[in-house]
Amino acid sequence: MVGDAGGVIHHIKTEEDVPAATKKLFDQIRNQYTLGYTPPNPFAGKDRRVKVEVNVPGYSVRHRSGYLAMPLK
Description:
- With about 70 residues, the protein is α+β, with helices and mostly antiparallel strands.
- The chain has one helix at about 20-30, and strands spanning about 45-50, 65-70.
- A two-stranded antiparallel ribbon has the order 1-2.
């Protein structure tokens, strides 16, 4: 999951790179939060934009820029 999904890529060139990449991935998962909200009209068929900001030095945000709220069929 990369790009608009907010994911990252870990480059692994050799078998020796696997432990370090795995540790980095686990450290990232251990130190992340999930935010959510429920819009007033969740299935309006509209493109919804999402913007997340932090004002703490050293912290960063990875997130999707938005989603399409489609009605359930």
